[in-house]
Protein: META domain protein
Amino acid sequence: MRKLLVLLALIPGAALADETIASGEWQLLALDGQRVNYEASFAIDAAGSVSGKAPCNNWFGQNQASLPALGLGTLGSTRMYCDRMAEEERFLSTLGVMTSAERIGENLVLRGAGRSMEFSRDPGSKASICVSCGD
Structure:
């Protein structure tokens, strides 16, 4: 009986973590442990729809896994050109291989295939600390 109570006590915490991942838009702070100097974002809702902004275009798709796991598969995007196309390609290709999402402090870290993406609600804030960066 005691083991069952402990297990039940853990389940709401897992649901809360998933809800905080899926609430609102996250702004890109770092890619593979290096801070970025462009704007990009990630959002996921409770139904698994994912969307955001890459450096040039809006992107969208569906998470085929249950949080905190990610299975983004093929992502769609608008098709506008800008001077940040190299950053856009790197952002979208990295996003496509992410397999997990984890809240670390106030940040969201996505990981997969030896790569990482770190997001913050407000990356421009002086209080925003990059947990995956070497700085």
About this structure: Helices lie at 2-21, 85-96.
